[in-house]
Specification:
The chain is an alpha+beta fold and about 210 residues long. It has one domain: Beta Barrel (Hypothetical Protein Pfu-838710-001), CATH 2.40.320. About 25% of the residues lie in helices and about 35% in strands. The protein is built from 6 helices and 8 strands, in the order E-H-E-E-E-E-H-H-E-E-E-H-H-H. Strands 1-5-4-3-2-6-7-8 form an 8-stranded antiparallel β-barrel. It starts with a strand and ends with a helix. The structure holds Thiamine Triphosphate (V4E). Thiamine Triphosphate (V4E) binds next to strand 5 and helix 5.
């Protein structure tokens, strides 16, 4: 298990120039298809828990414990625990929706576990991602273009279990300053834009619950 700390930003042609100026190393371009799953009642996402299949690999993003007092810059960052072991994902999903009747058998290796837990795909899209590494340790920058005409960048640090989240926040803040990111508003992620279009009521609910 690791913690993903990230800050989103809107980018332009100037961002590419800036990346070059600050010596960011382009580490390549990838394309991936994401499918997000939840119950029809959205039990997972209403608990800020995001179940995703990306190019055949499962991943669950869950909230982390609050850090306590945070500086303004850190408030622009999100932090999520990332679980990638399918067995651990299934356990966590079951915990989150345990108040529902989701009796499952021990063998959940094929995709029958989805229907047993009443999980359906509620969002799917393809992203083209250009990735860069900064000199600061562990700082990665992704520039994403989703297939529904939305682009967003993110500065990201992955912190291994028990690692220093505070240091990750500081490195993200330094990177943001180098990139000249001086906005103080939350930037919409791909999911915000997708849900607004395809599940507007659920989107409004997530906003009203301060999940998005
Ligand atoms: C919507 C959401 C999650 C799903 C994944 O979102 P995101 O990290 O934006 O996707 P992506 O493709 O960049 O994933 P990566 O390749 O980095 O793993 S996980 C948490 N949320 C909620 C959320 C939020 N509340 N605020 C912001 C700014 N982003 C996401």
């Amino acid at each position: 298990m690791s913690v993903e700390v990230e800050r989103k930003f809107l980018f332009s042609a100037d961002t590419l120039k800036k990346l070059e100026e600050i010596g960011a190393l382009c580490i390549g371009q990838t394309q991936f298809h994401d499918q997000y799953f939840d119950t029809p009642e959205f039990d997972l996402t209403l608990r800020d828990t995001w179940l995703r299949k990306r190019e055949g690999c499962w991943e669950l993003k869950c909230p982390t414990a609050p850090l306590g007092e945070q500086c303004e810059a850190a408030a622009l960052c999100t932090r999520y625990k990332e679980i990638t072991s399918l067995a651990d994902i299934q356990l966590r999903v079951q915990e989150v929706i345990k108040d529902r009747d989701t009796e499952t058998s021990a063998s959940l290796l094929d995709e029958r576990w989805l229907s047993k837990m009443n999980l359906v795909c509620f969002a799917e899209f393809t992203t083209v991602r250009r990735s860069y590494r900064l000199q600061q340790e562990g700082v990665k920058i992704d520039l994403d273009q989703a297939d529904f005409d939305y682009s967003v960048g993110e500065v990201e640090v992955i912190v291994p279990e028990g690692g220093d989240v505070q240091s990750a926040l500081e490195r993200i803040e330094q990177a943001a300053q180098k990139l000249g990111l001086n906005g103080d508003k939350r930037i919409e992620g791909k999911m915000d834009v997708y849900l607004k279009k395809h599940h507007p009521q659920h989107y409004m609910k997530l906003v009203s619950e301060h999940i998005l």
